[in-house]
Design goal:
single chain, FAR, 310 residues, alpha/beta, two-stranded parallel sheet
């Protein structure tokens, strides 16, 4: 196990570790900060600077067969239709890195809403720029980009339903199953763009194999050749469910409810009652009665019993 820090120059790797990593054959770059409300400085340092530093290290690997950059299907969510191609980034890699160097945290936080503009959060904003970082710094490296949508628990391998985090949809499922989450602002009839984790891993491996197979062709393409399509210079693979097997949030949560009631968790704190509310006003009212008031009551009981409120 070699530890590194994506937010630091040179990944904060020792010379010995760098020499060890030069013998790498395949890179799957999936490390990132995925918090939607992450401070821009940290999001840029990890998602963009870290990607650039890893690509610079990859250029020194003589036996590298493929470099797979794991992006997200929502990196360019400002477009109505996402094709398997590169898009113009909201800002160039070196420009955003320069901004970080010349601005302090207070100044950067102040202009963050202006910088991200149409992008909904710093996560997809930095992932969009990182894709262009890959395009710019992967010259001479057999590289591809994969864009999975919302990753959920496994369908089959290593066992059905396995997951090791509570990000995104998994957090909603867990919170509702335990009786903690009672309402969510969401259109129940919109498509839940979710894919099982084991299918995603298989997709990564297939993309890596395809990139390695096309290695000589990819490396022979001149970056300035206008006759070569962008998709041939840098293969991009979207991995989503909406095209082949769409499911709505209503259907997804109904399935989770059915299985959850059959085999409930021993950690449940309240009986299952969960609703998806399309209208923000209805959701806010539901929050008051189903989250805030019960929380106040529980805290009051804890105080009376001499315990610390949660």
């Amino acid at each position: 196990m070699v530890e590194a820090d994506l937010s630091k120059l040179g990944l904060e790797l020792s010379q010995e570790d760098q020499e060890l990593l030069l013998d790498t054959n395949v890179i799957f770059h999936a490390a990132a900060t995925v918090r939607f409300n992450e401070a821009l400085r940290l999001a840029v340092n990890i998602n963009i600077r870290g990607t650039k530093e890893l690509l610079l290290l990859a250029k020194r690997m003589p036996n590298l067969k493929s470099f797979v950059y794991v992006s997200t299907a929502f990196s360019y969510c400002v477009h109505n239709f996402i094709e398997e191609k590169s898009y113009s980034p909201p800002i160039e890699t070196d420009k955003i890195l320069t901004l970080l160097d010349i601005l302090n945290d207070k100044e950067l936080d102040k202009i963050t809403p202006i910088l991200i503009d149409k992008w909904p959060n710093t996560y997809v904003f930095t992932k969009a720029i990182a894709e262009d970082t890959v395009r710019q710094y992967s010259v001479g490296i057999p590289t591809c980009i994969v864009r999975p949508s919302i990753i959920t628990s496994t369908a089959k391998e290593p066992v059905r339903g396995w997951i090791n985090n509570i990000y995104g949809a998994v957090g909603v499922v867990l919170g509702s199953a335990l009786g903690l989450l009672r309402t969510l602002h969401c259109d129940p009839d919109s498509v839940a763009e979710i894919v099982p984790a084991d299918y995603v891993i298989s997709h990564f491996i297939a993309a890596s194999w395809d990139t390695a197979k096309r290695r000589n062709t990819l490396l022979s393409i001149k970056d300035t050749n206008p006759d070569v399509p962008e998709t041939e210079r840098l293969p991009i693979y979207n991995y989503v469910s909406v095209c082949q097997n769409p499911i709505t949030w209503r259907r997804f949560m109904k399935l989770n409810r059915n299985y959850g009631l059959q085999i409930p968790s021993k950690h449940c704190v309240w009986y299952y009652m969960f609703s998806l509310n399309k209208h923000k006003f209805v959701h806010n009212i539901s929050e008051i009665f189903l989250h805030y008031i019960p929380g106040i009551v529980v805290d009051f009981i804890l105080i009376l019993s001499g315990r610390k409120p949660q």
